[in-house]
Amino acid sequence: MSEFGDSGGGGALDSEPHGEVADNPLTTGTISSCISLLARTGNGLSHAYTKLTCPSRALTDIIVLSGYPHLRYVDLSNNAIRNVAPLAGLEFLLSVDLHGNRVEKVGGELGALKYLQHVDLKANGIRTWEVAGWPLCGVLNLDDNALSGLSLGDFSSLVHLSVTRNTLEYASPLKTPTLQKLYLSNNPIGKMSNIDLEDKKHLQVLHLRECGLESLAGLAGSDGRGLPGLVYLNLRGNNIHSSAEIDHLTHITTLRILVLSDNPVTSHPTYRLEILARLPKLDRLDKDPITDDEREEASAYKIQMVEKSDTAAKHDAEEGMPRDPDDEAEEDPGKDDEGPDDD
């Protein structure tokens, strides 16, 4: 993945449906060939192997892990595991890679993993999320699952959250005050208000490609000053028609890259000028860098926009002013001289 790019394509099981797999539990024999990294145990009184690497073995069950409480690094990617509850017994777990399995539920019991820092659950079939919080977790990947909604409680150390290609209708609340990168592309979110972007002062990258958005109202938070550190915003493939929607971004002085490709607004003849007039500090709009000539032209265009707006406001004010009775009399000088009709 590039610095600002999408978080990647589908997992190993994306291209084919989940069929039946013969029972193939993880055993102590298999573990003996996959375990490594001898280290001092959490209590400091002895040593134990702390790393398990068992990818792509068609494993279906990991209940045996309850006997290995000192594991810190677990890679069980590209297997056929459905139940991850046994991981709750790995008190000192720091990193777990379960991408490409068949997990449908991440239960609340996993919230006990208070030291967990890196979690990859991409390309499973997750529909239910019950973890209240992982306070030390910095990276969480939930791409290519079946979540229709996501709420995160105590994720106070999270810097990278990716939930692309699910069926998300909302991502709220997100108690993630240190979040720097948020990827929610390819979800039917519909409205910015369905995403919790409050208190995200560290957010630098926001991906909302193909989320069914028609307006950016709500992106700036309840006070209209949200996302003060945003650098990159991808809104490609939505349904934004008016360049006036960009007014919701004008307070974000750090924004340098904006992607609006495949939105109706890009068909406007003066599209790039209208955007750059509102966001003069952009370095790139869609795939093309901003040129010096464009900056000069956009500056002049902005002056025209302001003058046009001032003229329209003055006209509206004049139209709404009450009329002076003396002026009306001057317009019809004979009005006051008229008497009753003579019959």
UniProtKB/TrEMBL annotation:
Keyword Repeat: yes
Residue stretches of biased makeup (Basic and acidic residues): 305-324
Database matches in Pfam families: LRR_6, LRR_9
Superkingdom in the source lineage: Eukaryota
InterPro entries (UniProt xref): Leu-rich_rpt (IPR001611), LRR_dom_sf (IPR032675)
Keywords, comma-separated and alphabetical: Leucine-rich repeat, Repeat
Ranges of biased composition (kind: Gly residues): 1-12
Residue intervals passing through the bilayer: none
Residue numbers spanned by region Disordered: 1-23, 286-343
Presence of keyword Transferase: no
Compositionally biased residues, Acidic residues: 325-343
Protein name: U2A'/phosphoprotein 32 family A C-terminal domain-containing protein
Organism of this sequence: Powellomyces hirtus
Lineage start: Eukaryota, Fungi, Fungi incertae sedis, Chytridiomycota, Chytridiomycota incertae sedis
